[in-house]
Specification:
Elements: E1 7-16, E2 20-30, E3 35-39, H1 46-53, E4 61-66, E5 69-70, H2 76-83, E6 86-89, H3 101-106, H4 115-120, H5 125-137, H6 153-165, E7 171-175, H7 183-200, E8 203-208, H8 211-214, E9 219-224, E10 227-233
Parallel strand pairs: 3-8, 3-9, 6-7, 7-8
Antiparallel strand pairs: 1-2, 1-4, 4-5, 9-10
C-alpha cells in the first residue's frame, strides 16, 4: 500500500474580499520527499495555494490535510505545532535588516520555543547550536554577526533558508525564492534546495514563474485562474551546479 500523502488539498477554494476567486476547487496530493514546482502567470493562484498549506490563507471551502490530519479548522495551539514542522522561504527574504544573520536565523525557532523568548532574544545554547549548524550548511557561518542589510541578495536568501532549517522541517514552502536574484545566485539557491531534498528528504514545494527553475524539480503543477490545468512529473530534472561560497 502506498504511503498516505504528506499534503492533501480537497476541493479547496479561496475567495478574497471583493469576490476575487484565487483558488477554485483545487484538489491535489504531495507525498513526502517530493520536490514540486507550482508554475503559472501572475494571478494564477500559485502563492495562495502555497499559503493555504500552512494556513496563512484560510480556505473559503474545502479541506487541507497534513500528515493524515485535517488541519483546516484546528485550534491555534495545534496550528502552531503544525507550522513548527514547516519552513517558509520568501522572494523578499523577510529578514530584519538591522539585525545580525544569527539573530534572524534564531527567529526561526518560533514554534519550538515560547514566542516571548524569541521576542526578547533569550535563546539557549541548544538554540544557538542549531542555528550554527544551519549556517554551516548554507556556507555562511562566517556571516553570523554581520547585519542582514550588509549582505548580497544571494546571501540573504541563504539566511532565509537557514531560518527555515532551524525548525528541522519536514516541509519547506518556497515562494519565488529566486525571483529577486541574479542568474548565478538563482543557480546556487536551487542547488541548495535540491541538496536538502535529496540528502535530508525534506519535501519542497516551490512557486516560480521561471520555466528553467521548475525544470530542476521532480514534478510541475501548472495553474491558471485558480485552477490546476496540468500536473506532470519531470522525467529528467536538471541538476544545478553545487552551491559554493556564498555570493
Amino acid at each position: 500500500m502506498a504511503p498516505a500523502p504528506q499534503i492533501e488539498l480537497r476541493h479547496v477554494a479561496v475567495r478574497y474580499p471583493g469576490g476575487v476567486d484565487a483558488l477554485r476547487g483545487v484538489t491535489l496530493q504531495v507525498r513526502r520527499g517530493e520536490f514540486v514546482a507550482v508554475v503559472g502567470l501572475s494571478g494564477a493562484g500559485k502563492s495562495t495555494l502555497l499559503r493555504t498549506i500552512n494556513r496563512l490563507v484560510e480556505p473559503t471551502s474545502g479541506e487541507v490535510w497534513f500528515d493524515g490530519e485535517n488541519i483546516t479548522r484546528v485550534p491555534t495551539t495545534r496550528l502552531r505545532e503544525i507550522r513548527a514542522q514547516m519552513g517558509m522561504i520568501f522572494q523578499t527574504f523577510n529578514l530584519v535588516k538591522r539585525s545580525t544573520v544569527l539573530r534572524n536565523v534564531l527567529a526561526g525557532r518560533v514554534g519550538h520555543v515560547p514566542a516571548w523568548r524569541v521576542l526578547l532574544g533569550m535563546f539557549t545554547p541548544h538554540d544557538r547550536a542549531v542555528a550554527a549548524t544551519a549556517l554551516r550548511k548554507l556556507d555562511i557561518a562566517d556571516k553570523a554577526h554581520v547585519r542582514a542589510d550588509q549582505l548580497s541578495g544571494g546571501q540573504q536568501q541563504r539566511v532565509g533558508i537557514a531560518r527555515a532549517l532551524v525548525k528541522n522541517p519536514s516541509l519547506i514552502l518556497a515562494d519565488e525564492p529566486t525571483g529577486n536574484l541574479d542568474t548565478q545566485s538563482s543557480t546556487e539557491i536551487i542547488a541548495i534546495l535540491q541538496r536538502l531534498n535529496r540528502e535530508e528528504g525534506i519535501t519542497i514545494i516551490i512557486v516560480t514563474h521561471e520555466a528553467d527553475i521548475a525544470a530542476h524539480t521532480g514534478r510541475i503543477i501548472a495553474m491558471r485562474d485558480g485552477v490546476v490545468v496540468s500536473d506532470q512529473p519531470v522525467r529528467e530534472p536538471l541538476r544545478a551546479a553545487p552551491a559554493g561560497a556564498a555570493a
